[in-house]
Known about the structure:
Elements: H1 11-20, H2 22-33, E1 39-43, H3 47-57, E2 64-67, H4 77-81, E3 83-91, H5 98-108, E4 113-119, H6 125-141, E5 150-152, H7 158-165, H8 171-263, H9 266-299, H10 329-343, H11 347-357, H12 363-487, H13 500-503
Parallel strand pairs: 1-2, 1-3, 3-4, 4-5
Helix pairs in contact: 1-2, 1-8, 2-8, 8-9, 8-12, 9-12, 10-12, 11-12
Amino acid sequence: MPSPAPRTVPEPLVELLARHDPARAAQVRRRGDGPVPDTVLVLGPAEQAVGRLAAALAGRVPALVRCAPVGEVTMREARIAETRAVVWVFDAHAPVPGTHWARLAELAGQVDEVHLALAGCEPGRGAGHRLGALRERLAEVLPRLADAPLHLLADGHGQLVAALARPGQQPGYRNALRVLATGLAEALDRRVERLRRARRRASAVDQAMLGQRDEVTGRYRDAATEWPRRLRADVAQLRLTTAAELSGALRRLRVDARGYLVKADREARARFPELFLAATGELRAGLHNRFDGLIGALIAPELEPGSRSWTERGTPALSPPDGPGRPPLEDRLMLLVGASGGLGGLGLGRLTLSSAVAPTVPGSLWSTAALPAAVGLGVAAAWWLAKARRTMVDRARLGRWVAEVLEDLRIGLEAMLAERLLDAEHRLGVAVDREVTERATDMSGELREHERLARHVAARRAQQTGLDSAAVAELKAAQSKLLGLMAGTLPGTRPTPPRPEMAQ
């Protein structure tokens, strides 16, 4: 039967692969244009079994049989290009390391004909279990070899020799197709992974931009609602603080004045108005300074303390009480009544001296001697009563005057404080409104920039996603076409033999 005409790899598929992986495309061209591969490569982790199998195959298959350590495969690309078939020998008693799976995957991605063998396992139920586990692992790592024939070397080498003795037609063409399929699959995986990463990145970017927008919106909401609320709270707290300090200062001054008047004599009471007015002046100055500091701390730096001329009340317009002078008329009348009481009948004197001198003094002498004493006692009692009454009157008059001065001082300080608080609240309100307006303008600009950036990111994302989706669709179509080419049996080639374990 004549040999079929040489086939070539479809150039559009190679050009498509060249756009995604130029190195793989060059490898496909080298395999398609190179010499016919004529080597059977035997390798695997079971080194003794590999040597025995290579010796058994030598001279029995129409090809050059070579065995090589697993680690040398990736370093000898030229050897792989000469290989028409690969025989991989597994060891039933040793697990396959990850590096060996990677070497087998690399060979299976470049050589179309791959045979699998298992050494160190006798036929029986244990062999079926090991073969099933190995095929499960192959389905995970190399899906295309999951259904490939797997020969038990304990049964002999006949089936494997028979499979290798009937080589397929145009192995170079099939190997080129296999390299092309591997390159397209890798390019497709990269594009699909790129789409997955793009979706994850888009989700993360959307979340970050949404969080940033919420933050800007929250700052605007705080500026529009929270700042005025804080302003009202600060003003209310300052109003309570200043009212408490004003009441406490006036109460302390009232208590001090009462204590002073209780202990003061006539001269001290005469000096009291001057001392009290001085104390009220010091109190007024201290409260002014204190209020300036509190209000200045509230509105700084919009208004420095003491920078405004406030309307203030002066010293209370109350004249101090009159100084000591002549005794009042009622006091002089009290003295006169006391003296006349002593003269008119000798009542108080007679009652006082009768018990002491009556037994020894004659009547005429007693009357003459008792007269001055009676007058003196009456005058003394009247003088003491007048003095006590004058002290009480002075204290009462000064107490009323103190109450009037403190009331006038309280009214003046409360008026001053209310005026300052209203002005501070107004200035703070203006400052807050201005700041809120500025912040709203800035935040509106930020939101507009945020929306512009979001539209730009969405447009670029849609463009890139469209390109990647188109590339994925193109690669899938090319992969389907290539699988159709690889599935077609060349004229004169042998069909795929059944699994040895199924034949059993």
